[in-house]
Amino acid sequence: MSVTSLPFGLPAVGLGTWQMHGETAERGVREGIELGYRLIDTATAYSNEEAVGTGIRASGIDRSELLIVTKFPEECAGREREALRTSLDLLGVGYVDLWLIHAPLDAEGSLRIWERFIEARDEGLVRAIGVSNFRPAQVDELIRASGVVPAVNQVAFGPRYYDVELAPHHTAHGIVTQAHSPYSENSPAHPVLRAIADRHGCSVPQVLLRWHRAHGVPVVVKSVSRTHLAENLDTSGSPLAPADVAAIDRLGINPGPGKEE
Fold first, then answer.
1. How many whole angstroms separate alpha carbon 104 and alpha carbon 102?
2. What's the CATH code of the domain at 153?
């Protein structure tokens, strides 16, 4: 079995770009990088890679200081190389740091895509390869069939989807669990979250980010507000107490990872 370990560490908070387009995406990415974001997450399905690339260049930061993530739409199986070349051209880069299968197909379909991913990594077009929205059993199937372990599985890991077994399963394989959609998948008005936020003197989004941090799970968050972008990076507040973490854990309905769009 080949472990596709990450050749870099994932920051605790990365910048997501889902539903960001045109000038909004350009500005959000540029301001995010100016504020300190170093992981920029997009996808072919978001139809914003060109704007994201423009925002990256407008930031003035050296490409080598960024981790650029994009995702391949599983419904385009058979056109992996074409999709990757298009992503590279739109982003204006020579490689991406992490390329993910956006969601699983059946076992054979996912395997065929994964084999093309391995080729792209071996050719240096991507630094690392992984998956998104895969359940543990689907990850296991992919590993058994290919002998290559995904470096990352990006999933909905907010309290609503909390699965006590998911992160340990990934860790045992050497897979990094990365969370998406921490805000859109959870209600900021939930009384448990609201009470914890009040006790800590912070916002519910900050509580959610601290909960992810308590579980050791890096997260991708989206905002078009400079104030919220800065707030998402703020780690100055005290960590959540174990009792608070446990209370949030109990909110989970555990239906498994869901696709974000």
1. 7
2. 3.20.20.100
